[in-house]
Design brief:
two-stranded antiparallel sheet, five-stranded parallel beta sheet, alpha/beta, Rossmann fold
């Protein structure tokens, strides 16, 4: 039987939709016996209201939604790699790639995701609706084996490491390598025999963003290309237009959050059904 497999970040997970938001009742807060953290409210699971479930229902097939909040290109590629053995030739795979500028640092027991390495309020894009300096722990929880001093030291490392990418040298390298990773991920997914569709949460194309990053490099680094020119090898088709439906600013976002609402997800699933099926 055909299965729909979806991969991505919070927009594909359905972050902040009603069924994965836990009501903060007085009784529940008392059971915590500690200050409430935002992860006590937002459940780390895909929503049944998210577009993958809505689309799967329209297609009358089961869905496996591997997307999770905060995922960067590396984490989305990892989602695909882990799921690849379960993808069959008759299946449908939809990867909704996140912001090209998103950074993450991985350890066995923790993941830190500074949401965005650039904040430019002059660009009318969803990715800029992030408070400046929002390079903080994302879903990083203390453990029994960590102390306040440990967490402070790790947080300082994250801020230092992620802020280093604000340097144009690091930014271009990261963007370029993200496109390599995206191309390789698309290749091994297609090798399963499944139908593969690449979407993006960004209306701006990755090659265009990469070129913008190249233009702010030191002149001695810009050209000629000693590495393969991405215009020659980045040939995968990524839909950067459809995201305008799920990011429609005329529709109110999810309650108490900036993420897409139930209506956004419903409209997006309808759009994908019409566009691709």
């Amino acid at each position: 039987m055909t299965t729909l497999h979806t991969f991505g970040c919070s927009i594909t997970q359905g972050f902040a939709l009603p069924d994965i938001v836990r009501p903060l009742t007085e009784e529940y807060v008392k059971t915590l016996n500690r200050p409430c953290h935002w992860t006590d409210v937002h459940i780390y699971e895909p929503s049944n209201y998210a577009w993958p479930s809505v689309l799967a229902h329209k297609l009358n097939i089961p869905v496996q939604n591997y997307a999770r909040r905060g995922a960067c290109f590396q984490q989305i590629s990892r989602q695909c790699a882990v799921a690849a053995p379960s993808i069959k030739p008759d299946d449908i795979v939809i990867v909704m790639w996140t912001y090209l500028s998103r950074i993450s640092i991985q350890w066995p027991a923790r993941t830190s995701v500074p949401l965005c390495n650039i904040v430019d309020t002059s660009i009318p894009s969803w990715r800029t609706r992030i408070l400046p300096g929002f390079n903080k722990f994302f879903g990083l929880e203390p453990s029994d084996k960590s102390s306040d001093d440990d967490d402070a030291r790790i947080k300082q490392f994250i801020e230092t490491a992620s802020n280093s990418y604000l340097d144009p040298l690091g930014m271009y390298s990261m963007y370029y390598n993200n496109l390599v990773l995206q191309t390789m991920t698309d290749g091994f997914l297609r090798a399963t025999g499944a139908r593969v569709i690449n979407l993006s949460v960004e209306p701006q194309g990755s090659l265009e963003q990469l070129e913008e990053a190249r233009m702010i490099l030191d002149p001695s680094l810009k050209e000629p290309y000693n590495i393969p020119n991405p215009n020659d090898w980045y040939t995968i088709q990524v839909d950067h237009d459809s995201c305008r439906v799920i990011l429609d600013p005329l529709i109110p976002p999810a309650e108490n959050d900036m993420h897409p609402s139930v209506l956004h997800h419903s409209n997006f699933a309808e759009h994908l059904y019409t566009q691709y099926f």
